[in-house]
């Protein structure tokens, strides 16, 4: 449900770096003219004028990345990521019940399963789309628990 995922993965030292601030972050491309850094995905980098100053492009073949060897490892990561999402929120954040319980899960499932073709992965694609969508339930439940404590 996430393929193809065009992300900057390989780069020369000094050209870019990971800021190590978040779980899913973009590479920061270093502007050679003024040493400023800007988080970019490969798509918005290639569509900008900066691509002329740095040699960044697509690989001819995909890098297959299997982050979780089994489902229990996936669930541990799912739990950790939902907790991190809640920790990033300011204490006074207000989450809409309808938004987090109905709307966001529905849209996420449809995007993962149909737009990103999770259905082509069979049952694992369905499970991935399902758990990607119900992560909002986990975030909402953990947010409420934090608010009540």
TrEMBL record:
TM annotation in the entry: 122-141
Domain of life: Bacteria
UniProt keyword list: Membrane, Transmembrane, Transmembrane helix
Name of protein: Glycosyltransferase family 2 protein
Organism of derivation: Candidatus Roizmanbacteria bacterium CG_4_10_14_0_2_um_filter_36_35
């Amino acid at each position: 449900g996430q393929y193809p995922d065009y992300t900057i993965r390989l780069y020369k030292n000094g050209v870019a770096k990971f800021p190590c601030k978040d779980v899913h972050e973009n590479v920061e491309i270093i502007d050679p003219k003024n040493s400023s850094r800007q988080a970019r995905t490969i798509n918005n980098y290639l569509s900008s004028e900066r691509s002329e100053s740095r040699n960044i492009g697509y690989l001819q073949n995909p890098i297959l990345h299997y982050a979780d060897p089994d489902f229990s490892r996936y669930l541990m990561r799912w739990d950790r990521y939902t907790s991190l999402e809640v920790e990033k929120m300011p204490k006074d954040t207000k989450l809409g019940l309808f938004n987090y319980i109905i709307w966001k899960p529905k849209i996420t499932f449809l995007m993962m399963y149909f737009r990103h073709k999770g259905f082509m992965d069979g049952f694992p694609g369905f499970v991935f789309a399902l758990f990607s969508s119900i992560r909002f339930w986990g975030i909402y439940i953990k947010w409420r628990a934090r608010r009540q404590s």
